[in-house]
Hints:
Elements lengths: L4 H14 L10 H21 L8 H4 L2 E3 L2 H7 L7 E4 L7 E3 L5 E7 L3 H13 L6 E3 L8 E9 L2 E10 L12 E10 L4
Antiparallel strand pairs: 1-2, 2-3, 3-4, 4-8, 5-6, 6-7, 7-8
Amino acid sequence: MRSLAPRFMIATVLALVMVTPVSAQRLTPNQVGEGFVEAVALCAKATLAGDGIAALGEADRALVAEGDAQARAFVRSPEGRPVWDVLFARGIVLISEPEDHRCDVIACGPRVEPVFNAVTARLRREDLDFSVIDTPQTPSAIVRVYERVSGETRVEVRLDGGEPGMPGRTFRFPMLLAFVASNAVNVQ
Length: 188
């Protein structure tokens, strides 16, 4: 009977590589935070334009690369839908476009509040000009919501994050999520 030890060892190594903390990838939490901020800005630009990340200008597209099969599996993106790896924090900050007019960002590692504060500053800059929407907070999540109405389209950015130890959080690293979507404004 063959030993299962080599197979177990290979599986363990693969699992460690697939869920690697920021420090093991030689990225600082600041780099990951900056990558998250830029990813949210890219999603906001693409959604405002009504197109995906692939349709953005060359300077913006230079910030991302197409995600591989591992990235696609991690973000659970439908087959054939775009997944992007943010080059500034490769392997840690991922963008998915699960459907038209929707763009999601996921990252782990940096503290949530400082990164969300940086996202707020970036979304409020003149080129994006999003408004902050008052959002009730709960003990289990840090949530921020922004919107911009352009013509007959409303674009919403929702940030959702959590720190280890918050109620309901089992992840051992801070987790940051962004959901950017557009919909038609009710014109009456």
